[in-house]
Write a structure and sequence with these properties.
The chain is α+β, with helices and mostly antiparallel strands. Helices cover 44% and strands 21% of the residues. It is elongated.
Length: 150
């Protein structure tokens, strides 16, 4: 690591902290020549995951899409930002740690439903009503019955 001030090649790490996405780390460094301090952010470059949609089209995996759909489902519910972030991290970790660089969108939806079911049952039903594309009230009622059993 080169010092941004004097361009000297040797620095020492003073402090390291994991960033909230769990794939990055911030390091506080000090130049061994000029003694100035600076911060670097390192992140793991992972394989690009391709999501195969229901219609067969392909898109790059986008964590923000999961976040947006979960935020909508959890709107006005007692779910904290931290709980949501932890759930999204677990979903992303599971998706990225498979032996494939491709994932079906249904698998992602299933993981989101599992996470929401643990977080908040109302948010789960909200998400399920869109994800499962209920055609009538009877299908919706069946899902509620299944939820009540658990």
């Amino acid at each position: 690591m080169h010092c941004p001030y004097c361009k000297y090649e040797e620095t020492k790490v003073i402090d390291s902290r994991e960033v909230t996405d769990a794939n990055s780390i911030k390091r506080r460094r000090e130049c061994l020549k000029c003694a100035k301090r600076f911060t670097t952010k390192e992140h793991v470059e992972s394989l690009d995951i391709v999501v195969i949609k229901k219609d067969g089209s392909r898109q790059e995996f986008d964590r923000d899409k999961i976040r947006k759909s979960m935020l909508i489902a959890c709107q006005k519910r007692p779910v904290t930002e931290e709980q949501l972030e932890q759930a999204i991290n677990k979903i992303e970790f599971k998706i990225k740690n498979t032996n494939s660089t491709e994932v079906q969108s249904q698998e992602i939806g299933h993981e989101v439903m599992k996470a929401l079911k643990k977080l908040d049952k109302v948010a789960f039903v909200r998400f399920a009503s869109v994800y499962k594309e209920f055609k009538d009230l009877e299908e919706f009622n069946e899902e509620l019955k299944q939820l009540m059993k658990t």
